Amino acid sequence: MTIRLFNTLSGQVEELSPSDGKAFRMYACGPTVYDYGHIGNFRTFLQVDVLRRFLRLNGLETRHVMNVTDVDDKIIRNAAAAGLPIGEYTKKYEKAFFEDLDALSVEHPEIVARATEHIPSMVKLIQRLASEDIAYRTDDGSWYFRIAKFPQYGKLSKKDFTGITDGARVDVDEYDKDSARDFALWKAPKPGEYHWETELGPGRPGWHIECSAMAMNYLGDAFDLHAGGEDLMFPHHENEIAQSESASHCTFSRHWFHIRFLLVEGRKMSKSEGNFYTLRDLLLKGYKASAIRLLLISVPYRQQLNFTFEGLNAETGAVERLRSFRERIRAAATVPGLNASLAAEAARAKEGFHAALANDLNTAEARAAIFELVRAGNAAAAAGTLGAENVPEILAVLADFDAVFAVLDDHDPEWTRFALDWAEKEGRLDQASPEIRAQLALTDEQIQALVDERTQAKRTRNFARADQIRNDLASKGILIEDSKDGVRWKRK
RNA sequence: GCACCGGUGGCGAAGUGGCUAACGCGCUGGUCUGCAAAACCAGUAUUCGCGGGUUCAAUUCCCGCCCGGUGCUCCA
Fold first, then answer.
1. The CA-based dihedral angle spanning residues A279, A285, A291, A293, taken in that order and rounded to the nearest 10 degrees
2. Count of domains forming chain A
3. Which residues form the Cysteinyl-tRNA synthetase class Ia DALR domain (predicted)?
4. Residues A155 and A201 in one domain
5. Rounded distance between C-alpha atoms, residue A252 and residue A280, angstroms
6. Are residues A238 and A337 in the same domain?
7. Which residue of A129, A220, A286, A371 is most buried, as measured by CB atoms within 10 A?
8. A207, A227, A259 — which closes off a domain?
9. Which nucleotide is nearest to A263 (CA to C1')?
10. Is the Cβ atom of A299 within 7 Å of strand B at any atom?
11. Mind listing the pLDDT tens digit for each residue in A385-423?
């Protein structure tokens, strides 16, 4: 199946394929590890995950590089404030970042590249630019990129800089640059500031150079796709193109994949609005990692997603429905043979699922196809017309679905537990919802004892006592479900 | 201010120049249950921000307005 995706560079939906005929080579801008990741960050990483998972489901091998920016102004400032070496400061947040990715079932890229471990590549790239007078050194020892040498500057963000006059809007004197638009490749250190001693002189890399250097290092001068949040389009990606293509004289990335920002409760997410959430904030409020994943991927990447708690609750229910459907199909009584109309539904769901994702990653439509199969399958099971031969077919469709959506296996309690343990260690337990804390204060054995007592009470028709236990547990976030094959309970 | 994107039921949303406007949640009714919960089934927008226009036909194309977002500066 041909996979088509919108390309920011061309403004068209285009077919994706590995240009070397082997592996699909992609670079995705990763985190700057100075704080815990928020849901906006994770929407981007999740959409990239959807892309790579779908490519792999289609039999393509991926060579996916993600950078970790472990040196920049904020890191230097925060590390200094914390009295830590920057390496120690960033290590904590990098670890947290990958834990969060795991909680959200985001596959790790094949290659994770830290900026601080690639300084020589960056220096070499800047030297390459300097040899053609594209990079120049200013009196303070910083190096800048000469935009005048790259006439296509603006081709990604569709900006026209030809009419911009130097000095009109920017105080040129302050920067000591040849042109106001020229951007830093290498920053000379301020007194006492963290720096590397290199052939360029002492300093640290500018923001953009790391991505150019590392992408070219691992993927070559030209590769298939570059991804990131929409805000990175300009100036970050534009500058990457300028640096890379000036040095290599060939097209850097063929395809540019940009993920839209989300809104929270209809507003821009920001700390001042009070609607800023990290993944850990949500886990501590009792929301499940799988529901967060499903919500963040269910709105196609080019649409603004409005993240709401009501939506999160809705997706919690949706995950439950999908999981119980798979359980039901696995366990339901079947009749011999094949139910032909159900088989047609399964085939249609599979086709619809793949076609939707292949069409510019339309995740909303893809999951809709699966839910239609859920309804048809449940109806057949309820009517006693589920054929034995339908079962493996339906499970195969669900396997395809889960190869991309990754929400069917239940790891949620582990991650809630994880968040609580973390909160306890960090002294943030007060941020956890009372219900979650009450729930986790009870051991499985204690809960089981109460459940058994209730079953006993029911047997003697002491319904008052039975209901009292049920209500008491419910207030602590533990739900009791009576079924034909016994009593089950779960942590909400 | 300039540029770009979006505004579809109670909520999140898909989609299309003309078939009954997907799907999830919610809500209502039903099956089940000691009662619930869970699970399942069924029903649930004469209508797609507002005002014009093009067309035999517009939610879908064009113009204007209002609202939200993004970029122009650090940001996923």
1. 0
2. 3
3. 352-416
4. yes
5. 36
6. no
7. A129
8. A259
9. B69
10. yes
11. 999 999 999 999 999 999 999 999 999 989 999 999 999
